[in-house]
């Protein structure tokens, strides 16, 4: 998506909830930022900003949400920016808001240029040894300079420690997806997940295991499915040239059981998705970093357009404050 700004500010049914979220995020940020630098502030606020730009090679340009793959590779310029604001409303109560922007610009497949805007807001409340979180986010994505997809998402969660090395998190997610000019794919999704974090050396070295179940109910029955996903991740921080670098290795498997016959193949669709990712973030100075990433994805499906392999390689130079 090459458009320079978000073209739509409402969902298809005319609701203005996304605008309220963006407005809350910006108002909260502007109200809190001036006090963020005051050491004697009774309610300290943290403001994090990060931006990066670089290049990406994709061996198989595709749109997974549309079951479309070109079987051809391309290079793209990529840009990402994030701002997050977090402040304490009261002891044990934290408010947060954020905005994310991403853009890809392909050399040849410009119809696959993707631009995404995401606004979010939420809060955390400590309840003894358990923390309750509630987050809302709105995503507006365009594809090839045209409207593509909007997503409304709300997610309550509970989390806490078991001992000193094991952390757990339970989350329920409700998602409302609306596609532009593809109403058959519009869907409501109910999903639940459990995540376990095992700390080997604090946050310098730890494992994460997550299981996720989702039930997607689309307008067209052939897109309805129940899915199971298992993700295993290892995170390690270690010094490079006197600074802390971060390495992440992730393996993910997803099984999708569709519930109706797909007309184009005359049978019920069946998908298995495998992904392996390696990401290395290398700090160059206090505020400058380099991010290198590689991902291999193998989508196995009896629907030919959704059956393909893909390699993604990217390098980005970024700043953080």
CATH superfamily: Porin
The structure class reads: mainly beta
CATH T-level topology: Porin
The mean pLDDT is 89
Number of helices in the DSSP assignment: 1
Overall form: globular
Major beta sheet summary = 14 strands, antiparallel, barrel
Helix content: under 10%
Description:
By secondary structure, the chain is mostly beta strands. The protein has one helix spanning 17-32, and strands at residues 45-58, 62-63, 68-69, 74-90, 93-106, 114-127, 130-143, 146-162, 166-179, 187-199, 205-218, 225-240, 243-262, 267-283, 288-301, 308-320. The protein is 5% helix and 67% strand. It contains 1 helix and 16 strands. It has one domain: Porin (Beta Barrel), CATH 2.40.160.10.
Features:
mainly beta, Porin, 14-stranded antiparallel β-barrel, two-stranded antiparallel ribbon, 16 strands, 5% helix
Summarize the structure.
The chain is mainly β. Helix content is 5%, strand content 67%.
What is the topology?
Blueprint: H1 17-32, E1 45-58, E2 62-63, E3 68-69, E4 74-90, E5 93-106, E6 114-127, E7 130-143, E8 146-162, E9 166-179, E10 187-199, E11 205-218, E12 225-240, E13 243-262, E14 267-283, E15 288-301, E16 308-320
Antiparallel strand pairs: 1-4, 1-16, 2-3, 4-5, 5-6, 6-7, 7-8, 8-9, 9-10, 10-11, 11-12, 12-13, 13-14, 14-15, 15-16
């Amino acid at each position: 998506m090459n458009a320079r700004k978000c073209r739509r500010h409402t969902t298809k049914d005319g609701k203005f909830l996304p605008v309220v979220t963006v407005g809350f995020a910006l108002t909260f940020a502007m109200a809190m930022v001036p006090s963020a630098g005051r050491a004697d502030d009774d309610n300290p606020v943290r403001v994090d900003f990060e931006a990066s730009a670089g290049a990406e090679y994709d061996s198989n340009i595709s749109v997974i949400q549309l079951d479309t793959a070109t079987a051809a590779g391309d290079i793209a310029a990529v840009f990402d920016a994030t701002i997050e604001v977090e402040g304490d409303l009261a002891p044990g109560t934290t408010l947060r808001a954020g905005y994310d922007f991403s853009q890809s610009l392909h050399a040849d497949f410009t119809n696959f240029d993707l631009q995404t805007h995401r606004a979010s807001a939420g809060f955390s409340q400590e309840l003894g040894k358990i923390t309750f979180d509630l987050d809302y986010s709105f995503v507006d994505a365009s594809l090839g300079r045209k409207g593509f997809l909007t997503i409304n998402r709300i997610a309550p969660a509970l989390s806490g420690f078991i001992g000193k090395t094991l952390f757990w998190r339970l989350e329920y997610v409700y998602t409302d997806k609306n596609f532009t000019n593809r109403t058959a794919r519009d869907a409501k999704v109910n999903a639940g997940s459990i995540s376990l974090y095992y700390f080997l050396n604090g946050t310098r070295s730890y494992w994460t295991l997550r299981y996720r179940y989702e039930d997607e109910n689309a307008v067209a029955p052939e897109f309805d499915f129940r899915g199971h996903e298992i993700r295993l991740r290892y995170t390690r921080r270690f010094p490079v040239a006197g600074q802390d670098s971060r390495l992440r290795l992730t393996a993910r498997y997803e099984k999708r059981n569709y519930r109706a016959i797909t007309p184009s193949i005359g049978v019920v669709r069946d998908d298995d998705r495998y992904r392996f990712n390696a990401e290395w973030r290398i700090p160059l100075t206090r505020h400058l970093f380099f991010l290198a990433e590689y991902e291999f994805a193998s989508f196995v499906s009896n629907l030919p357009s959704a059956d393909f392999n893909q390699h993604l390689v990217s390098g980005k130079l970024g700043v953080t404050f």
